[in-house]
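In response to reviewer comment 3 from the previous cycle, which asked for concrete evidence that the modeling workflow produces usable outputs, we include below a single protein chain processed end to end. The sequence was submitted unchanged, and the resulting structure tokens are shown without manual editing.
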Amino acid sequence: GKGQAAVKINELEFTPNDRDLVVVGYHKFAGLVDSSTGKVGVRFTGHPNTVFAADVSPDGTRVVSCGGYHE
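The workflow returned the following structure tokens.
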């Protein structure tokens, strides 16, 4: 969309509801994205740089992500 920077995706995974995607990538991006609209519903903050991986709990109530420094 307008005003949004492109994100190089490192990983994505559907949540158990099969509607949302957990998406992580470059530019400190980690969040839940609606798979039908592409809109970011929740953005996870706290990563100082690239986010490399994520996983979702079986019941969909928790998401864990990890990252590091990429030069």
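Residues 55 and 65 are 7 Å apart (CA to CA). We consider this sufficient to address the reviewer's concern, and the full set will be provided in the supplementary archive.
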